[in-house]
Write a structure and sequence with these properties.
Low-confidence stretches: none
Order of helices and strands: HH
Strand content: under 5%
Number of helices: 2
Oligomer: single chain
């Protein structure tokens, strides 16, 4: 099946191909575009990480608030924080809590 040009003439194979200089110019242009776009993409990635982190912190806050509203406005304790807080209070003269009846 013959190949035709856009103007309707048949392609006879006599046209030249791209020269080495033309190919190198195109490669250089692509390299410059990539060099310009990489910092912008990296900034977008960092911005995305920051917004995901902020969303996770917000969700943790919502969870703690829901826990507090269900448990007499008390937040959950962690073992290390509770130990450090209570030992600090005892050191300053506060009494240890009595067992609930």
């Amino acid at each position: 099946m013959p190949i035709f040009h856009a103007n309707g003439r048949p392609h006879d194979g006599s046209e030249r191909a791209f020269t080495l200089i033309e190919v190198l110019v195109v490669v250089a242009i692509i390299a410059v575009l990539v060099a310009v776009l990489l910092p912008a993409l990296s900034q977008a990635r960092e911005s995305s990480k920051r917004s995901v982190c902020a969303s996770h912190l917000h969700q943790q806050g919502v969870g703690f608030a829901a826990y507090g509203s269900d448990n007499k406005h008390l937040l959950p304790w962690t073992a290390k924080f509770r130990y450090a807080l209570l030992e600090g209070l005892y050191y300053h003269g506060y009494e240890k809590p009595k067992a609930d009846d």
